[in-house]
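Example (one chain per record):
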Amino acid sequence: MSNDRFINALLRKPVDATPVWMMRQAGRYLPEYRATREKAGDFLTLCKTPELACEVTLQPLERYELDAAILFSDILTIPDAMGLGLSVNEGVGPRFERTIRTEKDVENLSVPDPEDDLGYVMDAVRLIRKELDGSVPLIGFSGSPWTLATYMIEGGSSKDFRQIKTMMYQAPELLHKLLSTITESVISYLNAQIAAGVQTVMVFDTWGGVLTTNDYEAFSLQYMRKIIKALNTGSGDDRIPAILFTKGGGLWLEQIADTGCDGIGLDWSIEIGDAKARVGDRVTLQGNMDPAMLRAPDDRIRQEVKHIIDSFGEGSGHVFNLGHGITPDIDPEKVKVYVDAVHEFSQS
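Predicted structure:
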């Protein structure tokens, strides 16, 4: 691979500069993405057409000196493949026609076949790897079981998580049964992505931070631990690194590090130097600039990048990223300032 900074940082090997990529780096802030989405007609068609998914995956790499590509897809592909009837509308967000609320609903779910029910994802992975031609590594991903369950039970996005928390406290055995099925599905899905060619996998636990410490361990972290243990990542220097990201998970860094993951994604609510002091060199830390900082003047963006790099300090084991996904309103020129500043201030 001509640029292996990202993989080396995840394996805590020396790097010549801190690698950088962004969550949602292929997305609506780019005019070329919006043009491709218009060509597709809607978001799900864009996800399910490998040639178009490949096109938008590569778009940010043509603009910026990014150190990794991330597969263009969505975390809700698994519940969609389970037959819940996903729709994604501008301004409304994801919605499912059918929700999971009863024992019968859970029993009727089956683990999707990744090469059949989710074959479009694997086709996209293979096509992207071919087009990247070894330039940078490709990241594959999935939502966490807890996060996927929130959408499946609530029927879409939620502010208070009323339905899933009601199930969690009134019928915990039923929720564990659902989470076990989703976990099996995530393991199968990520292993298929690895077989198709992704070089890193990431689990997005977007809603883990809404849980108490005890419930986070019981209903989220224990299932992510099972996923990490079951991945076909190989061993040694050639292994496929795995990253866990719990938004709002700064309380639980030590427990997340204990799962055996290679990297922990950090949101912006924690100082990266403090996180490093807590987990040492057991894991790489990924993050963690506030995405809203990209609305700031160029000098302020550069100042924040330098602060985060200085806070992390010496040594490998840092992948620079935002603390969550880039938002659609960001000027693409601000991203160039951010990416270039990471390499400038971190060069060894």
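Caption: The two ends are 20 Å apart (CA to CA).
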